[in-house]
Amino acid sequence: MYIDYTKVPVQAKEYQIVTGDLRDIQTSTHHTGVTNLSSFQRVLMKANGTVTAMLEAYLSEPIQVVKLSENIANMELKFPNIKLNKQEEVIARKVLLQGKISRLNFIYADSLILINNLDERFSHKLLNTNQPIGKLWSEEKVATFKEIIDTGIEPANELSNYFCIEPEENLLFRTYSVSSQGKINMIITEKFPESYF
Q1: Digit-coded pLDDT (tens) for 63-78
Q2: Beta bridge pairs of residue 109
Q3: Which CATH code, of 2.40.30.90, 3.40.1410.10, 3.40.50.300, 3.40.50.2300, is assigned to 11-193?
């Protein structure tokens, strides 16, 4: 399941609890129930590579990040099978991956980034540039391990405006953790319209 951080109001330095029960799907449907995926949709849902690089290769267009929000907060994160400290300082970030030429939004992503598990130079660039995370990983030569936690389908609802689709149209999503040097440093959910690709 994806964790809907849009429902979590983030205030700088305010203590919060964010939980994720990966067995409780609520309004989403597991990927196994999504039957009519195109080849590229299957790649986006299941590959553990960098989505920015995949989009650029598929679309023949450079991709840029449009930051919707980015806040630093103290949160308690509870996810089954993921060991985290009781309380974490995180960057709660919401972005769009947009074509630099077409100015079309292709992916919505929300992330919880564990600041204390990041290299200082990497976190500085993350906060002070509009580069996609995947490009920063490559630029900084950060070795990462990505584990897909869940995939599924859900109505676009309020995110429909970013993609010029109707609220009842579906988004496909994937949620994954990112680890480096044996520590989880990000939990990311990426969403894109079912009608794309």
Answers
A1: 999 989 988 888 776 6
A2: 95, 190
A3: 3.40.1410.10
